[in-house]
User: Fold this.
Amino acid sequence: MTKSKFINLLKNNRTARGVAFQLLFGILIGIFLLIIVEDILYLTLGIVSQSSNSMFHNNLSFDEYWDEQGKLFSFFDISKEEFKSFPFSNGFTNKDGFIAHKNSKRIKEGDIIVFESNDRFLVHRVIYIWKDSTLSTKGDGNFGFLKEEINISSDQVVSEVIFRIPYFSYLVWKFKPETNLS
Assistant:
């Protein structure tokens, strides 16, 4: 495609295909600019992506998921009703992207956080806050607990997931591969 054809497609094409192209192009430019500005100014919001299925509910309904995983959450006195009220109570997949807030001061039980452990980043749900303010987490899709998610200090917390963007990971991986998280 020549430069003039590309500009014509952006400016003058009012077909459904042209409008879709303009929207997609605008979104891609917006994402690109957000990533650039975030890196330059170190904004408090960031774009991250999930690269494992640790938060995936295996396409189960909420009740099926709870039947499978509820006992693990009950060890921390989390009831089915309480879990249902948590953010992202239906989990997410490794195809999803996220907007995350880089402020760990307001994290509460049930929130999804990004934390660093053993030189890698994990995205898991906070299931308990201890008296010394350390956190315990669990990947919703994991059938147990990892040693590194039992005692997480505030220094390890990178951000809190505040918004899910379905199927967005493909773009994040393309433009910023170092943000892939487990």
Summary: Residues 44-181 form a domain with the Umud Fragment, subunit A fold (CATH 2.10.109.10).
